[in-house]
Amino acid sequence: MRPERSAGPGGRPPRTLPDPPHIDWPALRAAATAVASRAYAPYSGLRVGAAGQTSDGRVLVGCNVENASFGLTLCAECGLVSALHAAGPGNERTGLAAVAVVAGDGEPLLPCGRCRQLLLEAGGGRLLVDTADGPVELKALLPAAFTTTELAQRREPQPPQPEPPQETR
Fold this sequence. Notes:
This protein is α+β, with helices and mostly antiparallel strands. It has 5 helices and 7 strands; from the N terminus they run E-E-H-E-E-H-E-H-E-E-H-H.
């Protein structure tokens, strides 16, 4: 078991994650390449697929979905994290252990900054990310990340809510 360094959601104490299972990087990259072929990328022409392996060994995938208003485009990693939550974790300690992100040609792509932040909550800083030079921990790609710990510690106190008016009879 390995402790997660940042606090859990809502500033809860860190959870203990199981040791990651064996990662078959060629199979993970192949799954990402296969799902990249289903990407919707009519504007950029760059099909991207992401495949992630959970700490309990499940493999989930996602692909990019573009939109004419580019700000609404979803990266492949967004689809992957959505699939993780939609599949329902085996238990509270299940998260991503490894992720491969590739272009349609099967070659690795590094997640953008937004997706690195999204992956951080889905797998923690020790999440392994496939790169052209081999896997690296996400914390090396996202130093000084914003985490739930900062959110819990820096949140402004909420003002008290007024009482609803009492009904008179």
